[in-house]
UniProtKB/TrEMBL annotation:
It catalyses: [thioredoxin]-dithiol + NADP(+) = [thioredoxin]-disulfide + NADPH + H(+). It comes from Saccharopolyspora erythraea (strain ATCC 11635 / DSM 40517 / JCM 4748 / NBRC 13426 / NCIMB 8594 / NRRL 2338). PANTHER family: THIOREDOXIN REDUCTASE 1-RELATED-RELATED. Coiled coil: none annotated. This is Pyridine nucleotide-disulphide oxidoreductase,class II.
Amino acid sequence: MEDVVVIGGGAGGLNAALTLCRVRRRVLVVDSGEPRNAPAERVHGFVSRDGTPPAELLAAGRAEVERHGGRFADGEVRTIRRRDGVFAVELADRVVSARRVVVATGLRDELPGVPGLRERWGRDVLHCPFCHGYEVRDQPLGVMGGLRASVHQALLLRQLSDDVVIFAEEVDDRDRARLAARGVRIVRAAIAGLDVEDDALRGVRLADGTVVARSALFVPAPPVPNDALLAGLGCERDGDGLVRVDGNGLTSVPGVWAVGNVVDPRAQVVVAAGAGAKAAIAVNADLMEEELVEERAA
């Protein structure tokens, strides 16, 4: 019987596992090995780790968890079932019993169907100005319009470059005025493809064949949380459709915590790591209270 099974080996899951291992909890981390930031060359905005390759950061985190007694199982969790206060976590080759569960399964980015976007994703087709904007500062930047955060991103990117273009077939009067005030140029056309040369983005191609020279394109793709396991447990959702958690990551299902992008699509790596630590402290307190009841009854 594990004290805690942590599902997901990204920053949130690893920090939860590390915090629990440091108070001598028996912890198993199940990791599919498919982190959201795998295509990116560097992690940014994480104090003391800015510029670290994602794989290097995760490898260091795994080593720290293992050094403190944590264990890993590579693969995916198929289902989680709860019975009599114990969780049965089903892997491909076995079922693991756990007293508590922390879900840190992240999200996937739902990219528009424009040829070339996926291949350049995390390199010079980007999603977050805070994560990647500094690295392309003072370069000609583009923003794909028609997405929920497009106008906001274009306005924000003007802090990083004097040459920002938003590609949008339709822009309402209010947004047009805001973009003009900020000095963002509007190209009223949809993006048909990318111009790539020597493994670098050189421009954005429009439907009529015109190429607008750009060094990076920001695509605020809709995030889709990987929350099927939480849905299977019956976890409640909030008004935005995200699994509802309290300030420590506790879901509506007793014994189940969720941290990172699976419940907070905007969480950067450093935020997810902090959420993992908070959840771990709450998980340990919950286990301790249960143990006190058992010890008094003995």
